[in-house]
Each structure stands twice: as structure tokens, then as C-alpha cells.
């Protein structure tokens, strides 16, 4: 009975579900995975297609950008070339205009140092008396076409007088007076030729070189250089120099070598080529403002002292020290007494910053030791300098100094503070 029952059990087992084999399970899983992966694969294929399209588009964009960049580069070169050509043309035209203006002024002379008087009108008569009595030149009645002061009238006539511009009827009359200019030496009056502002700036740079060249002596006491100015050119031994080729000058009369002159007791200096000059360009910062020279700081503060903020901004925008000084001469509400009381303190701050913030300049200042620093200013500048030019032998004699040498004293103070 038991055997029969077991056989029935076996038959029941044979009729039931059989367990899955390993191969069947693998096949089933593969089918399931394929069902799941096929949509993903199709999606990836689609994404790959999109990526390929995007890459193609990017490549096209890159190519277009490179072509555009190349075109812009060529355009920049063309524009720059055209700009340079225009600058060259403007420079050439400006040169012609200046030359024509200089030619139109050839019959003029400027008389400097003639005191101003309130209500003065007849400048021609004043000039005639100077020409006749001081220069011994007897001009005809119609030799002077006109005469007038240059610039607006000052509120305070105690300062430097404005020059008197004189136009002569003929160049011959003008030369008659010009040839006798040496007879004014020793007086407060001197004569200068009349040139456009552009030419004046160049001559101002060339003039000290001319004087230094003519003052040079070799070991035998002979003059190695014969120098004179011809409009905007310096002629030395028949060779012409311009403001653009001064590096070709002989070594003894290069600008940097003639701006300072030392003796056992003194260091004399003059012009923007000297590191001791207020016009020497050397950046320094006071507060939040950067200045390119001491002159800029002084003139900027001069304008602010009298609340002329327009002039102050113009001075800060100007990069040329001579232009900064010119702007400082036309400040509104100017009071000479008030400025006299403040200028030294203002200059002192600028000098300290200039030399403290520029190590090479500080070294040059300290190398002067205990010698007195002296600005060899022109005769009309008797405040900041001594009123005697650098190559005038009289500058070595302190008794002959005509000015206060304010800049020299302030430099000496700065040297003591930094040593």
C-alpha cells in the first residue's frame, strides 16, 4: 500500500510545475533587460544624433567666429593704419599752420618787465620812450603799427607785469630794435620775439641748451660750440637740432647734464630736466589723488584755495607742467597776500611726498649732503629762485642773488626730514 501511495505521489510531482533551469533564467532575464534597455538605447541613439548635430553647429559657429575675428583683425589693422595716416596728416597740417602763424608774427616783438599802471592806455608812447632813451634807436613816426598788453588785466598790479606786444610796420624797423636789445641788460626790461604757443614751448626747452653751449669752454679756454635759435630749431656749429632729436647732442650739453651745476657749497638747478625742479615729472600720491609733478599739486591746491574748482579740475587733467602753471595763473578770486601765506606749506607737502615715494630721487637729494640747493631762476622769478640764470657767473656770489630761493630752502628742509 505504501509503494502504491509513493507512486501516486511521484505521479503528482510529474504533473506539477517544473523548477526553471539556469539557462531558462538567463534567457528570461535577457528578454526582460532587452525590453527595458531598448527604449534607453533608442534614447541614447537620439541623444548621440542631437550631440553630433550640436557639435556640427558649434564647429560652424566657431568657424564663423574665427572668420569674423580675422575680419575684425584686418579691419583693426586698416583702421589703425588710417588713424596713423590721419595723425601724420594732422601733424603736417599743424606744422604748416604754426609755420604760417610764426611768419605772420615776424614783425612783432614782446617787451617784458614794463610796470603796469592803473588806467594806462598809450602803450605805443611808452615803448617809444624805451626804444629811444634806453636803446638809442630813433624810429620814424609810423614805425610802430600798434602796441598792447597781452592777456586780461590783473586785479592786483603788484605781480609780474603783462608783456607789451609791439607790431612794427616793417621787418626792417623790428630788426633795428632787436639788434639793440643788449642795451637793456641790467634793467628790468627785456625783449623777446613773438611766436605761436607751440613754438614757444619748443624754444623754452631749447633755450637752456643754447645758453649752456655758448657758455662751454674747453681746456684751452676756447668755445667749442657756437649756438643760436632759429624759430623752433637749435643750431649748433651749423647743425640743426629739434626737440625730437636732443639725444644726438654732444654729451656736455645734453639736457640732463646741463640742468644741474654743483660747487663745493651749492647745487644750482633749473628746468624740468633737473630732478629738483617742480616741473620734473615724478608720480606721487597725496590722499586719494595721484600727481605727476610738484607743480601740478601746487597749482591744484592754489585753485582750491580760492574755490575755483573748474580750474582745479583742468589742472588735474593737464599733463604738461607748463600748462598746469599757465592754468594756475588765471585762477578766479585770487588773492596774492593769502596765497603768499599758504604756498610754502603746500609746496612742502608735495616735495616730501615726491622724494619719499621715489627712492631714486630721494637718493639724489640726500647725495647733495649739506650743500645749499639753489634754483637758478630767470630774473623775473624772485620768489622760488634767486633770479639769476644757471650759467651766469654771478650765481656763485650769494650777495648778487635777487630772489628768495624759496624752493631751494624747502628742498633743504625736505632733505633734513628724509635723512
Q: Supply the number of helical segments.
A: 12
Intertermini distance: 131 Å
Poorly predicted runs: 4-16
Q: State the name of the first-level CATH class of the domain at 284-418.
A: Mainly Alpha
The gyration radius over C-alpha positions equals 42 Å
CATH superfamily of the domain at 284-418: YbiA-like
Q: Which strand order does the major sheet show?
A: 2-3-1-4
Tell me what portion of residues adopts beta-strand conformation. 5-15%
Number of DSSP strand runs? 12
CATH architecture of the domain at 284-418: Orthogonal Bundle
Description:
By secondary structure, this protein is α+β, with helices and mostly antiparallel strands. Among the domains are: 108-193, L1 transposable element, RRM domain (Alpha-Beta Plaits, 2-Layer Sandwich); 197-249, no CATH class; 284-418, Orthogonal Bundle (Tetracycline Repressor, domain 2), CATH 1.10.357. Helix content is 50%, strand content 11%. It contains twelve helices and twelve strands. A four-stranded antiparallel beta sheet has the order 2-3-1-4. The chain has a three-stranded antiparallel beta sheet with strand order 5-6-7, with helices on one face. Strands 8-9-12 form a three-stranded mixed beta sheet. A hairpin with a 3-residue loop joins β8 and β9. α7 (294-305) runs parallel beside α9 (321-328) and α8 (309-317) packs antiparallel against α9 (321-328). The protein is elongated and about 140 Å long. Mean pLDDT is 89; it is low at 4-16.
Write the layout of secondary structure elements.
Blueprint: H1 2-15, H2 22-104, E1 108-112, H3 123-134, E2 144-149, E3 164-168, H4 171-178, E4 190-193, H5 197-215, E5 227-230, E6 233-236, E7 239-241, H6 255-258, E8 260-262, E9 266-269, E10 284-286, E11 289-291, H7 294-305, H8 309-317, H9 321-328, H10 336-356, H11 359-366, E12 372-375, H12 406-418
